[in-house]
Amino acid sequence: MIEVNPIIIIFAAIFTSNMIFSNFLGMCSFIAVSKEIPTAIGLGISVTMVMTVTTILNYIIYWTVLVRFNLEYLMFIIFILIIAAFVQLLEMVLERYLPTLYYSLGIFLPLITVNCAILGISLFMVTRQYNFMQTLGYAVGSGIGWLLAITAMAGIRSRLNEKSIPEGLRGTPITLIITGIMALAFVGFSGMVQIQ
Amino acid sequence: MNTILTTIFIVTCITAILATLLTISNKTIGNYGEVTLTINDDKEYIVQGGNTLLDTLRAESIFIPSACGGKGSCGYCKARVLEGGGPVLATEKPLLSKEELDSNVRLTCQCKVKQNIKIEIPEELFNVKEYAVYIEKIEQLTSTIKLLRFNFGDEEISFKPGQYVQLKAPAYEGNEEEVYRAYSIASSVNDTHAVELLIGYTGGIATTYVHHHLREGDQAHVNGPYGDFYYHEDDGGPIILAGAGTGMAPIMSILQYMADNDIKRKAIFFFGARTVDDLFLLDKLKMLEEKLYDFKFIPTLSREESQEWKGEKGRVTIAIDKYVEKGGNYTAYLCGSPQMIDSIVEALLKKEIPLEKIYYDKF
Amino acid sequence: MIKKSEVKKIFKKGIYTENPVFVQVIGICSALAVTNLMMNSLIMGIALSFVTAFSCLTVSLLKSYTPKHIRMMVQVLIISSFVIIVDIYLKAYMPNMSKSLGPYVGLIITNCIIMGRAEGFAQANPPILSFLDGIASGLGYTLVLLMISSIREILGFGTVFGFQILPETITKWTLMVMPPSAFFILACIMWVTNNRRLKLERKGVEKR
Amino acid sequence: MKNSLYYPILFMIAVTVVFIAILASINYMLTDTIAFNQESELRQKILYIFDVLPENDDPQEIKRAFDEKIKQKTINDIEVYTLIENNQEAAYAVPINGPGLWGSINAYIGLNKDFTKIIGIEFITQSETPGLGGRISEDIYKNQFRNIDIEGAADGNYIISSPQPGSNVDAIAGATQTSSAVVKMINEDLNTFFESTGVR
User: Fold this and answer.
1) Which residue range forms the structural domain that includes residue D87?
2) Which of B81, B213, D24, D93 could form an S-S bond across to B7 if both were Cys, CB 3.0 to 4.6 Å?
3) Predicted model pTM
């Protein structure tokens, strides 16, 4: 394995290996919640936070428990259980103690458990054999990349004039086409920085 | 074998820890204690806080219609929250109009009960329930109208005379979608373990189901009661009832209510039909005429050629013109097709009966 | 017990009227990532149908015993267990397929179709119906995947399930091999189905 | 009962035990098959580099051929595979890796016993665009690396990709970046190998 600086991994995760545009993860909430900019930013920030914390938890459990007892084949179960439990706990805590934060970000938490981007990060961290700092960089970068992508999409969609689009293309289909074009644009970043 | 046991042990430890964490926090952080839920300013419930309003109401057997199951995407579960609902959430805004936001309307599946809360919901939702019923009796009244008696078993329904229930027509051979159709209750409100419906055959999904597929003893589903067409205890003046075909159903319920409660009001029932063959439930009406304080049944036939018919002929409005006194302090209940009701309302207005004393149910 | 008409309705909903991918717009992450080859799509579709059907069955069996606050955990545990079974099976008997699907097998867990059916259908319906519903949704998903991948594979590689059908000499359309093309094709499929639906709706209005 | 403190935990434990027991048993039964599959793939690739693949690709056949002809050996801390012919080392497969366009590429490159010729290449992992850079895994590209004389190569440029003058390998049309990445990693890693081991 080539040692890569965690800072470079952050940039790579934002641009060259953007979760949405090159791995297509987290598409469901990306399409459903990208109608307005404030909502998109709220969801993006929640995703980034949850992604960072759960990836670190999963990293620790993976190397201290799963690898030691040869249980790597069970990583899916453990990872998703940790994500689900963490999201639910976080929701309860925010709702009780930080209501303002809850009303702006917490309400998106139930959408996050089934967001494949979160689980995806934990799985890629294992297949790419990152060390702790690299994992941290990768999680933070991917979160920011996701936030950037959904905000950009919300910006475009809020300026889209629905009337000038053929009726059958309105809504999801046109969003998919825009995403496709954006993905092609992001191909331009390839080769700029390396992720592995 | 050993490896399998260690695996089970380790994973179980992890899930047990997570489950414990969640359970404890559910008992502590997620526990908002008991709060008071006030509905429409008069009914109070002591409920467990921490759940959504929709779930809380459901636990109290108040069913607010909801199609998406609490995901905040259908926008059906609206209700006015007057106090204690917290700020409107971003997940609700796309589904609420400006007027609704101004009048404190919220999505009950998103709004959580964390403190004492006051809400307002349509009164009729209190009683609405879904009942699993079976068909006790089917009676062919005329060539196209059947009377069906749905038995509720141990359950009870409470409704006002004149209200309707919805009957579910499930998918059957030749029909793939499930539909609900409304039918007025023809039976007495005291008969709480059953409802009787009059259902005429029109060739539609639900009436085809009723006329060609339902047999005595079959299972069916109804929910209700609904509707703001029902008997009003007002000034006690004389009552005009008018209907045609299956529109007799709510009127029968009103008449039986009057008989059961010995209400001493003058009542006159104009029933429109084409020929003698289209008249039904005559024995029951005869009985009511004897039992009630002052009740007259006036069938008017528009197409009867036979010389034996001694009753009224022509349209209902002609009979009304003949029997109703101008300026009498009447209250009117009408149930029938829109055209029929429009013409009767016109005739009643001519008799100087104010519009607010004319209740009707168009179908 | 179970009426034929009800089964028929479930399948019609899963495959056409409420197709998870192009009507409900869920579970499209993997629909885009694995559709460059038809074989991959087929295996992915079968795997997803298997997981959805059995997860729904189990969730439905356990629904009345599951405490509310750990329902989410129980559901993800059930779903991920079935995914691991699929993963182990592919690794043991179809190693090449396992390699080319890579992490997307694991990501079946977070495919919203499974969670959606488990929460939306299995939670309120008897086990056998839930099982059939799972198969129907999975089938609907598989068909869309195959539709997208057939276009991509023919234009991008000139092959169908790996068999050359276009002459070797044609210029391959590279864009079709690259992931963004899946967006365009899915959008077009939705466009066609939307138009059909709109046309039917308009006809319905005129009739009335 | 559902509201008690212990019920949810016990319920969770029960569900976990049942499911993990099933999974652990399945895994236990299939572990060997999976491990064999993974080894089999590597064996096949190493045999391919030396161009000594058995005619049928039955995994057992491959294992026999591999055990018979290939030995693992460490030259100066670098793990290489050697081809044994007539009880003598006849060729070597040296690991090389480097960044591709999308992710790192891991490969083995085959050298003859005097380290004067490249005799083959095989990619172990690569995540290049299928149909473009991904075509480095196709035989048509890899077979170009059979029998390339590197004895007289200047400045450690053993492989020169077209359209450079004096090229000995054709780049993949439309995937210039991947092609040059492969060339770069071969040249760099071979140089390091030769310098550190001093075999030449």
Assistant:
1) 70-197
2) D24
3) 0.71
